[in-house]
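Course assignment 3, question 2. Fill in each field.
Student: A.L.
Task: Predict the tertiary structure for the chain below.
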Amino acid sequence: MGRNDLITGNVWEQYSNKVIERMNNPKFLGEFSEEDAKKRGAKLVVADFGSEACGDSVRLYWLVDPNTDKIIDARFKSFGCGTAIASSDMMTELTIGKTVDEAMKITNLDVEKALRDEPDKPAFPPQKMHCSVMAYDVIIEAAAKYKGEDAKKLKNSEIVCECARVTRGEIEEIVRKHNVKSVEELQKYTDAGTYCKSCVAPGGHEERDVYLVDIIKEVQEEMKKEKLQKGAESQKFEDMSLVKKIKAVEEILDKKIKPALAMDGGSLELIDVKENGDKFEVYVRYLGACASCASGMMTLMGIEDELNRSLNTDKIKVIQI
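Answer field:
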């Protein structure tokens, strides 16, 4: 029976020859025992990971040199479809010779690209991309076991695009940095949403808690609010409304003037702010020890200088009443 008797030739054409070869003849299928590790002076690491998306699972065996943290050999067992077997086989090969930390940088995208026959042609259909995701996850599980850490702490729990292993934080950073307003613009800078597309918007073959369109919209709204706030904060004192002028003056008095006066047992209160031509008259009343202080006029000049400096103007005149 030929392959065309089982599945259409068009579908088979979506799989690279490397994938098909490793489906049928995986190079690193097998396992290691504690005895194997002992003979080679290595630490045995065994890690498991199962995919909720398709029910596949993989077990990864590492022999790690404890002196260098280098993975001197690796094997795997996979329970799943042919794509999962091929991806696991390539993932296992890619980890050999690397340190544990270096292996943690291997992603499912690296695995998929290593399985391509041609650099620009995907190794398998986009709907099978989730099979290669296990490659990344099982590496993290193995690294966590070797390091004695929690696997959840070694990987970002807020993965938005499972296929490309792109986190929400990475997406938000791209949106802010490049002022991204659409998924198409986002994909100029990341592979998020270019494979199975479930993370792009509701309606894909897998439901998600958050989608790329939602994140882009939320970040854009946040950026608009921040821009308005920044504009309000940087607004010239002369251009503020009277209410804002009073609030701005009160803030400087509370933060910079009153604490200094309090050290000598005094204080002051803001009575009013009035416009007088191109000047802004700030009326204050001294309280406590300041009310009878002989150097009150000098202090008044200091308050005036501080207000003008802090509010980036030269139009403020402080008047004692």
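Instructor remarks: The longest strand covers residues 266-276. The radius of gyration is 33 Å.
Grade: pending
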